[in-house]
Amino acid sequence: MRIDLHTHSTASDGTDTPAELVRNAAAAGLDVVALTDHDSTRGHAEAIAALPGLDRPLTLVTGAELSCRLDSVGLHLLAYLFDPDEPAFLRERELVRDDRVPRARTMVARLQEMGVPITWEQVARIAGDASLGRPHIATALVELGVVETVSDAFTPQWLANGGRAYAEKHELDPFAAIRLVKAAGGVTVFAHPQAVKRGEVLPESAVARLAAAGLDGIEVDHMDHDGPTRARLRGLAAELGLLTTGSSDYHGTRKTVELGACTTDPEIYGEITRRASGAFPVPGTGGPA
Questions:
Q1: What pLDDT digit, counting tens, does each position of 189-216 carry?
Q2: Mean per-residue pLDDT of the chain
Q3: b/e map of 249-269 (b: 16 or more CB within 10 Å)?
Q4: How far is CA 107 from the centre of its chain?
Q5: Which in 137, 195, 224, 255 has the greatest CB count within 10 A?
């Protein structure tokens, strides 16, 4: 089985619609794909509706990538198979989403003060109906020729955590996020915990605190982790009793990584589904009649 547990659609900052994402996942030979848009579940219904029309069976794992902050360091938690209508968790996700627009306006204003000819209208056009985020602003910088790629915008000079144009937004306390996800029947995995090129990362002692609070796993195999980093994270996971996952963090054409670039072991996937009670993977019925 080929299992990719971290992807994004136009419901947040990807370039594939949810339906396109599952079609592309099937075409890439995946057997399981998780849709984990930033702080949003808006793409789930469209992705589920597209499953029967696929050329081959594909199972969809519903989820979200949660924006959190601990000790002044931003981090992301992948939440899988939770009840999206659980009231307390839904309320917190809405608070995070509602703060995205004023935060983006602040970053656009800061870029303008730096002499960048970016406009709010340009960023809004790029984002469309999506949950607005830094990648949309980064795409505008690419359009303007300020940087060559979206990744080049995530540096201290521009949009990285603490960067010149960076602005904070409402973010969850990760300990509270773990409690909320578990209360909604879900499973939590710390996304790209050592992606140092994105900015400051948490020390291993903080990961241990999260594990003690109920964190289920860490994302080890990721494009932002080199070989030694992956080996170190596997050792940490073994020490703390955490699951280890692998994922593409696919964003469509906004990043160069392909679906299935990194994958999760089927036994780990099975354990994630066993721990979840808020929702269940949705099996696709596509394929030849």
A1: 999 999 988 778 999 999 999 999 999 9
A2: 95
A3: bbbbebbebebbbbbbeeebb
A4: 21
A5: 137
Burial of residue 206 (CB within 10 Å: 0-12, 13-18, 19+) is middle
DSSP structure string for 61-129? EEEEEEEEEETTEEEEEEEES--TT-HHHHHHHHHHHHTHHHHHHHHHHHHHHTT----HHHHHHHHTT
Q: What is d(CA 182, CA 185) in angstroms, rounded to the nearest whole number?
A: 5
Mean pLDDT value across residues 84-109? 94
For the residues of 17-48, what is the DSSP string, one character each?
-HHHHHHHHHHTT-SEEEE--BT--TTHHHHH
Tell me the C-alpha distance between 45 and 17, whole Å.
12
pLDDT band at 287 (very low <50, low <70, confident <90, very high): low
Please state the rounded mean pLDDT for residues 20-39: 97
Distances (CA, A) of 2 to 65, 207, 259: 21, 27, 10
248's tokens: 């593409």
In contact, 77 and 188? CB cutoff 8 Å: yes
CA distances (Å), origin 226, targets 6, 53, 89, 222, 232: 18, 37, 34, 8, 10
Q: Strand, helix or coil at 230?
A: helix
Q: Which two tokens stand for residue 107?
A: 């970053």
pLDDT recorded at residue 276? 98
Per residue in 106-151, pLDDT (tens digit) is 999 999 999 999 999 999 999 988 878 899 999 999 999 999 999 8
